Amino acid sequence: MNNINSYKHNLQVDLNCDMGEGMDNESEIMPFISSANIACGFHAGNEYTIKKTIEIALEHGVAIGAHPGYDDPENFGRISQIISVLDLAELINEQIYLFEKIAEPMGANIHHVKLHGALYNDCAKDPTLSKIFVQTVQAIYPDVYIYGLSESNTIQQAIILGQPYMQEVFADRTYQKDGSLTPRHMHGALIDGIDNACAQALELVLHKKVRTMQDQIIKLPADTICIHGDGYHAIPMAKAICTTLKEKGIEIKYPQ
């Protein structure tokens, strides 16, 4: 299952969205995506929203992923924390087990795990944290995909440890020249224009490159494209990106 090169080509891509975070727009977005990252109750959501979002994903044939984050709902999990490797493993374990407790009786298989917010970025930057993350997932689900920032430590650790992975890029976020996402507190971190987001998605899928905030072109592998479900124009953006990709002959499909 580790060899997914047959999946990774220009005419097929996964389109994922962060969901179950209290926006109540899952039914409107789900028809346009192929995989859903569902909040596990720590940065956002609860058992009810997890169950509801899984139900909607099953109705639309969308792959289901756990979306753990820092236990910080006040800041929506978007503030970095100092965390030990033991605490990190426990944090991820607790959220995955909560998710599994709800998903399993519904006949829903966990397809992938993607970290949220600051935890996602902290692991992407830190090889030790990313190793613990991948090992924690691997101990429970050795065949589940890791969704991680393209070319980051998260992906490198998945490769080293032999865990299936998807290199994630973003349609609605800007990039720094080192391949990291522009921090949300900085001006220009979000791409609000739908046409601009569509253009960036196409450039990443077709040419595997993106223009950074420093006006440089960098190369980034793009297996899965993320859009965010908490934006004020999340629904029209999801529809537009889905339509744009399909018009270019790009199939939207999660890896199996």
What can you see in these coordinates?
The protein is of the alpha/beta class. The protein is 38% helix and 18% strand. It has eight helices and ten strands. The chain has helices spanning 26-29, 47-60, 85-103, 117-125, 127-140, 153-161, 194-207, 234-247, and strands at 12-19, 35-39, 63-67, 110-114, 145-149, 165-170, 209-211, 217-219, 224-228, 251-252. The strands form two sheets. Strands 1-2-3-4-5-6-9 form a seven-stranded parallel beta barrel, surrounded by six helices. Helix 3 links the parallel strand 3 (63-67) and strand 4 (110-114). Helix 7 (194-207) runs parallel beside helix 8. The chain is globular. It starts with 11 loop residues before the first strand and ends with a strand. The model is unreliable at 1-10 (pLDDT under 50).
